Fold these 2 entries.
Entry 1:
Amino acid sequence: MKCPNCRTKEMVVITMMVGGEQVTLHSCSSCDLRWWETPEGATSLAGVLDLAAAAR
Ligand SMILES: [Zn+2]
């Protein structure tokens, strides 16, 4: 998937488990666009940190 912002680079996609939830980070190394997704939909870094905090 190409970056929808700069359209020059492929997005880097990293999937990890945070607090028992699958979280996917999409990141562009060219323009620094990034967003997070869970199976429920898009989320923010704050939402990811909430998942991590809730797991403790
Ligand atoms: Zn980009």
Note: The two ends are 34 Å apart (CA to CA).
Entry 2:
Amino acid sequence: MNAEKKKVLVIGGGLAGLTAAKRLVDRGFQVRVLEKRPIYGGKVSAWKDEDGDWIESGTHCFFGAYGVLYDLMKEIKTYHAVLWKEHQLTYTLEGGKSFTFDTWDLPSPLHLLPAIVKNGYFSFGEMAAFSRSLIPLALKKDKYPPTQDHLTFARWAEQRRFGYRLMDKMFRPMALALKFIPPEEISAKIILDVTETFYRIPKASCMGFLKGSPQEYLHQPLLDYSQNRGALFQNLSPVDELLFDGKRIRGVQLRNGEILDADYYVSALPIHNLCKVLPSSLKKNDRFFGDLERLEGVPVISVQIWYDRQISTIDNVLFSPDGVIPVFANLERTTPDYRSLRGEKFEGKSRFEFCVAPAKELMGLTKEEIVRLVDRSIRANFPKESQGANILKSTLVKIPQSVYAPLPGMEQYRPTQSTPVSNLFIAGGFSQQLYYDSMGGAVMSANLAVDALIREASKADR
Ligand SMILES: Cc1cc2nc3c(=O)[nH]c(=O)nc-3n(C[C@H](O)[C@H](O)[C@H](O)COP(=O)(O)OP(=O)(O)OC[C@H]3O[C@@H](n4cnc5c(N)ncnc54)[C@H](O)[C@@H]3O)c2cc1C
């Protein structure tokens, strides 16, 4: 293949776009990345505020399952920055109670035994009913979840008759943490897929945190890697439209009026932005593109609060079914580079980061109102430890359309990376791959999009 002469425009500089750029420069393509915002990283982006404190789009946990992400980080030499935490999931509850799902270092599925017999909250009877509900999953393995995409997880659980407490205390925060929507909305397929992976691969549910900001350990190293090998990165360059001549994409129109062209185009945009830049003729006349409009983004809010004392010493991700904070972490524990406030050392106190969901009803509230709700939730979960605690600083990020909403029936509309237009490829967490809209999913989608592009380029060369 005569790849040196082939030009590729990558549209979107999130994790999928940055990964695609790296994979393409590695194969000798001329790459140019167009990003709308001043910073790269999209939904994993992080930036410093006026006090010099890192703000993140959201708490990002690294699941053991994301092998493709760790391969990438090893290639750019930043894998050392993933700090693996103890293999357990802790849930905190109103009134100061908590329970923990531990694992044992045993082959699957025995590694899950302690979660069933000694979680300290659910009875053996409840866990036995739950285990029974998973028999079809144990028998049919990964063939089973796709057959349940027509149901919400809540409906599936109702049919399988496992107890209300498990749904409310364990699966509600899990659904909200995974995709920011509750069990009454999320497709059963998602929760079953994740459960099947956790069941089959012992390390899949182990959680890691970056040592510091994703900007320093993920995006900038990826960008530097590709830039040093000739890729061009253009921020503040929103694309308004893909120009289609009835057969192929002929160029992209930037918001400033400029038109750029290439041999191949990789969209690494979120679904709602992709729908905006696709020409209406494609959406009208081709079902593949028309169906994309059925997918939608979920709103989510991220809040950070610095407290003047240590409220939780747990160095791991935390889940809570009570209040508005389904998933959170004390970054002062999990993320060593974040032990600071306004340039001063910040140790032995709490710097929590919270994912606030479901956020649909909260998007219209002010920062003060949302922080008050979050503060109330943390005080309810840690009544003793938070007594007399004062807030030193808080920050908030609202994302009106974040990951795509995996509602029942939506799986069929997730696009493949190859499209009916031979020189257009789609990467991004919402496109078809194993890991849904996640960091692992973004990387895997980019790998698949680049593989498809290379196949097409080889065909053209023959
Ligand atoms: C609050 C929050 C918490 C999360 N937590 C986790 C977690 O713990 N673990 C995990 O694995 N995943 C998590 N995720 C999901 C993960 O962040 C995403 O799945 C992943 O980052 C998606 O990457 P992407 O490159 O596909 O899309 P994006 O990150 O959305 O990147 C798309 C890029 O395209 C740019 N763009 C948009 N329109 C245009 C345009 N017209 N022209 C040019 N550029 C444009 C955007 O600015 C953006 O940079 C979380 C997400 C959020 C929001």
Note: The first strand starts at residue 7 and ends at 11.
